């Protein structure tokens, strides 16, 4: 089965696989190449797949999985590919730290914009509003 993992800005993976294991809202499931056509919502967690390169893992956010014929497509908001669970955990932790820093910077910029707006409003006497 050909597995394609799609993100909003890139294709994360295109590979022939023998088995895909993921988790939907009603529990985990396994897809094999001859599985019936299938559509499900993916919940945040770990998606694993087996190919000639061995078992690999992807940390996934919410998304949709579609299996149609010999093709499997997973469309996700965010995903991180890892060779093993240890390296994947380390990469996910680093990404969360990076995103947390970006969020703090965005909140600081937002607070500065709000303060500037309020100062301008007070200087103008607020009578125009």
TrEMBL record:
<keyword id="KW-0406">Ion transport</keyword>
<keyword id="KW-0813">Transport</keyword>
<dbReference type="InterPro" id="IPR001469">
    <property type="entry name" value="ATP_synth_F1_dsu/esu"/>
</dbReference>
<keyword id="KW-0139">CF(1)</keyword>
<feature type="domain" description="ATP synthase F1 complex delta/epsilon subunit N-terminal">
    <location>
        <begin position="1"/>
        <end position="66"/>
    </location>
</feature>
<dbReference type="GO" id="GO:0012505">
    <property type="term" value="C:endomembrane system"/>
</dbReference>
<keyword id="KW-0175">Coiled coil</keyword>
<protein>
    <submittedName>
        <fullName>ATP synthase, Delta/Epsilon chain, beta-sandwich domain protein</fullName>
    </submittedName>
</protein>
<dbReference type="Pfam" id="PF02823">
    <property type="entry name" value="ATP-synt_DE_N"/>
</dbReference>
<dbReference type="InterPro" id="IPR036771">
    <property type="entry name" value="ATPsynth_dsu/esu_N"/>
</dbReference>
<dbReference type="InterPro" id="IPR024037">
    <property type="entry name" value="Alt_ATP_synth_F1_esu"/>
</dbReference>
<dbReference type="GO" id="GO:0045259">
    <property type="term" value="C:proton-transporting ATP synthase complex"/>
</dbReference>
<dbReference type="GO" id="GO:0046933">
    <property type="term" value="F:proton-transporting ATP synthase activity, rotational mechanism"/>
</dbReference>
<keyword id="KW-0066">ATP synthesis</keyword>
<comment type="similarity">
    <text>Belongs to the ATPase epsilon chain family.</text>
</comment>
<dbReference type="InterPro" id="IPR020546">
    <property type="entry name" value="ATP_synth_F1_dsu/esu_N"/>
</dbReference>
<feature type="coiled-coil region">
    <location>
        <begin position="85"/>
        <end position="112"/>
    </location>
</feature>
<keyword id="KW-0472">Membrane</keyword>
């Amino acid at each position: 089965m050909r597995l394609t993992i799609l993100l909003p800005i890139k294709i994360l993976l295109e590979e022939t696989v023998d088995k895909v294991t993921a988790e939907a809202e009603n529990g985990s499931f396994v897809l094999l190449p001859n599985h019936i056509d299938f559509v499900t919502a993916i919940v945040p967690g770990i998606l694993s797949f087996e190919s000639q390169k061995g078992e690999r893992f992807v940390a996934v956010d919410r998304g949709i999985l579609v299996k149609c014929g010999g093709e499997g497509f997973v469309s996700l908001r965010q995903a991180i590919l890892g060779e093993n669970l240890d390296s994947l955990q380390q990469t996910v932790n680093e990404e969360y730290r990076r995103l947390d820093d970006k969020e703090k910077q965005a909140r600081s910029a937002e607070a500065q914009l709000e303060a500037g707006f309020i100062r301008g409003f007070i200087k103008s006497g607020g009578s125009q509003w």
